[in-house]
């Protein structure tokens, strides 16, 4: 049992943020202490205790009234639902329970993760690790397509993923009892599963055993050097596991090991140490030799830096949730690719270091897989850029290359500077023009101001981008070539410029592109 800090409902709601959760009614106020956060499926018996914040899934509006009443009878402090309803709000007021409205597009596991992290914040490292492990379990579940349990070396369940999928007897009893049932553990030992998990990093495949109520699953041991720390189990649900499940599980085990070592030792190590090492390397404040010595890599070999940027248009609290989820996803993928991979967040971007590269093809493939997985499994829109360093000491330069690609805000989901150098340089020139009006041609600003119908500037740009090919430019704009000739001539007269001058054409194309 973990100890918890005395966080009030008000403090938990502040952590969630107003855009994510709104208080509809709080007849007892917001200053009672929250005991736990519970997800409640209406089809299950309400496993709710006094002081719980209950997240009601599967029901909206008035349909949630019976479940809200049941949770309140068991002492729930607050109940969160999706959808507004006057009758539901009045019911909550009458029975004395706070009613919270969750934004319709929010994912319940994200709300739970953020609320739980708020409750655990400020207590000991074990509690922080518990919160991190539950979040990590959810990421592993998304990547593998299965139901995840993280266990310690004594087969005690430390964390598990949430799912409405088909749960077999082994998983059900393991979670309910906080430890796998002995008769099942004995069979796994007899089959040699635990021994292999303790001795190697190889992913184990355990076939379905219908007579025992056990579905197909895969598992991998969690190791710190030669020491076995536990295992991660993934049960197959109603659909097969993903094709990348085993590789994702290997990376997840390496990331989980860091969390478990942290809980046993100094809370600041090794995760925070690894983040600090990468931050210093990217900023040029930490030497390559120091980083290489800590992560066990060759500083003279090439290394790659991948920068990730969220492209979602969302409020701050939602972006923070998605960034945390994306960081977990990146850590799992990169750890499966390179054990010594480092991941950290700087500002709004997430960076991954991939040391000991043997070429860039694998790094580009990995990055594309991460971007695709973020969109498919987590619903997160993200762009990524890669930079290559000839050796670890050039990491800061590789980061700058990746940042330049992201700063250009191109359409490509994944790119390197060599793929889009011209586009990046044009974007940088346009940014320079935007910041320094003194180096712009005022006649072109006049043209832009006079083009009230918005037809002259696009026509000139299409003409210049087509290198003066009137027919090609007209086809692009879906107008007659003579119409284009008239508009270009009219624009030149309005601005007082000579488009036969190659230098003027260059300046005109750049400056009008600002629009």
Question: Summary?
Answer:
The protein has 515 residues and is α/β, with parallel strands linked by helices. The protein has 20 helices and 15 strands.
Give the helices and strands, then pairings:
Elements: H1 9-16, E1 21-25, E2 36-40, E3 52-60, H2 65-73, E4 78-82, H3 86-95, E5 98-102, H4 108-120, H5 125-144, E6 147-152, E7 157-160, H6 169-177, H7 182-190, H8 193-199, E8 204-206, E9 217-224, E10 227-235, H9 245-264, H10 271-283, H11 288-295, E11 303-310, H12 316-337, E12 342-346, E13 349-354, H13 361-378, E14 382-389, H14 395-407, E15 414-416, H15 421-435, H16 442-450, H17 456-465, H18 470-477, H19 481-495, H20 502-513
What does this structure look like?
This protein is of the alpha/beta class and 515 residues long. The protein folds into 4 domains: 9-116, Udp-n-acetylmuramoylalanyl-d-glutamate--2,6- Diaminopimelate Ligase, Chain: A, domain 1 (3-Layer(aba) Sandwich), CATH 3.40.1390; 124-264, Beta-Lactamase (2-Layer Sandwich); 271-419, Reverse transcriptase/Diguanylate cyclase domain (Alpha-Beta Plaits, 2-Layer Sandwich); 436-513, Arc Repressor Mutant, subunit A, CATH 1.10.10.2840. Helix content is 48%, strand content 17%. It has 20 helices and 15 strands. It has a 5-stranded mixed sheet, with helices on both faces. Strands 7-6-10-9-8 form a 5-stranded antiparallel sheet, with helices on both faces. The protein has a 5-stranded mixed sheet with strand order 12-13-11-14-15, sandwiched between helices. Strand 12 (342-346) and strand 13 form a beta hairpin. Helix 1 crosses helix 4 (108-120). Residues 122-127 and 265-270 have low confidence and may be disordered.
């Amino acid at each position: 049992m973990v100890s918890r800090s005395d966080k009030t409902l008000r403090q938990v709601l502040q952590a969630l943020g107003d855009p994510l959760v709104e208080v509809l009614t709080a007849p007892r106020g917001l200053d009672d202490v929250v005991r736990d956060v519970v997800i409640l499926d209406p089809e299950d018996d309400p496993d709710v205790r006094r002081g719980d914040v209950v997240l009601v899934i599967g029901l909206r509006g008035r349909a949630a009234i019976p479940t809200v009443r049941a949770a309140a009878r068991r002492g729930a402090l607050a109940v969160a639902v999706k959808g507004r309803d006057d009758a539901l709000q009045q019911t909550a007021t009458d029975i004395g329970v706070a009613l919270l409205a969750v934004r319709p597009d929010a994912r319940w596991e994200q709300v739970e993760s953020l609320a739980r992290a708020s409750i655990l914040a400020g207590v000991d490292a074990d509690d922080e690790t518990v919160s991190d492990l539950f979040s990590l379990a959810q990421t592993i579940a998304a990547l593998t397509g299965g139901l995840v349990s993280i266990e310690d070396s004594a087969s005690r369940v430390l964390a598990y993923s949430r799912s409405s999928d088909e749960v077999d007897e082994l998983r059900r009893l393991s979670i309910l009892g906080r430890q796998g049932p002995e008769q099942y553990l004995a069979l796994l030992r007899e089959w040699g599963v635990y021994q292999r998990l303790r001795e190697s990093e190889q992913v184990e495949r355990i076939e379905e055993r219908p007579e025992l109520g056990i579905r197909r699953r895969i598992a991998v041991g969690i190791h710190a050097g030669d020491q076995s720390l536990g295992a991660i189990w993934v049960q197959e649900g109603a659909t097969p596991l993903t094709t990348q499940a085993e590789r994702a599980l290997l990376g997840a085990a390496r990331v989980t090991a860091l969390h478990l070592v942290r809980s046993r030792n100094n809370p600041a190590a090794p995760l925070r140490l690894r983040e600090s090492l990468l931050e210093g390397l990217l900023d040029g404040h930490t030497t390559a030799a120091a980083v290489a010595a800590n992560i066990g890599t060759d500083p003279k070999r090439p290394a790659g830096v991948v920068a990730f940027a969220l492209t979602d248009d969302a409020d701050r609290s939602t972006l923070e949730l998605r960034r945390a989820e994306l960081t977990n996803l990146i850590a799992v993928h990169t750890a499966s690719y390179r054990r010594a991979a480092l991941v950290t967040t700087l500002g709004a971007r997430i960076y991954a270091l991939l040391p000991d590269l043997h070429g860039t093809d694998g790094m580009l493939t990995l990055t594309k897989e991460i971007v695709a997985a973020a969109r498919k499994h987590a619903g997160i829109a993200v762009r990524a850029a890669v930079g290559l360093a000839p050796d670890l000491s050039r990491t800061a330069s590789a980061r700058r290359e990746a940042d330049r690609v992201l700063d250009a805000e191109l359409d490509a989901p994944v790119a390197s500077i060599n793929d889009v150098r011209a586009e990046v340089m044009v974007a940088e020139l346009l940014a320079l023009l935007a910041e320094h009006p003194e180096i712009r041609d005022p006649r072109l600003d006049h043209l832009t101001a006079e083009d009230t119908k918005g037809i002259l500037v696009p026509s000139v740009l299409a003409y210049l981008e087509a290198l003066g090919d009137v027919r090609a430019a007209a086809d692009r704009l879906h107008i007659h070539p003579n119409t284009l000739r008239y508009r270009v001539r009219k624009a030149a007269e309005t601005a007082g410029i000579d488009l036969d001058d190659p230098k003027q054409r260059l300046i005109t194309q750049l400056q009008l592109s600002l629009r």
